């Protein structure tokens, strides 16, 4: 098959909003839109989350994670979890559900393995982005978490179509980076009603340029992506370094160092990653 022609076909469909999703994705997108309504208060969010047993369980789990349970007080109810997390974090949880649902129809073992590795990479990136945002760049941590969760959504969509286009996973990784990722990614992000600030941060990743020390949401996302111990199975971004090399990055942060912050935050990152992998 002509892999580049297939990328162009899928990209053209994505740019026109002609995306093929499982039925459960559409329901989750409606839930996401409801949570993004400025008038969506905690009581409304609680009812929406309680209607989905899996999402309700994840909400309680993340509320009890080290990243969000700083007092050490464990909670067991959805209402208390919603109050602790806030609607913004709930948007990230729903986004995580949507991203995983996109690939839920895959049956081919190779595709499923790619899906699993891509989600591991995504979960690591999102957890790291949240900590880097809160402790280093001081951009909104909830937005950074959300951006980390959706930053590879175009890749998930590509994998979800792999069984319709045999051979699409063959070839060089740069072909996906150069000819498919941007157009397909934009289309899927638009379909999922991703905020413009997050869209801009993800687009900055596609260029592969970041500042050190990191300054904005795009830099936060790129550094987290570099540090993720599981690399994306689809590509290596321009300028990306190996996770091992990324872990040698260090710079001054106030009276401390970036390396020290990562070591101090290791439990938070691991706890958040574990919840996202549920």
UniProtKB/TrEMBL annotation:
User: Pfam families, from UniProt?
Assistant: HDOD
Q: Which domain of life is it from?
A: Bacteria
For this protein, the parts annotated as crossing the membrane are none
Q: Which InterPro entries match?
A: HDOD (IPR013976), RNase_Y/CdgJ (IPR052340)
Q: Which PROSITE patterns match?
A: HDOD
The residues covered by the HDOD domain are 21-208
The protein's name: HDOD domain-containing protein
What is this organism's lineage? Bacteria, Pseudomonadati, Pseudomonadota, Betaproteobacteria, Burkholderiales
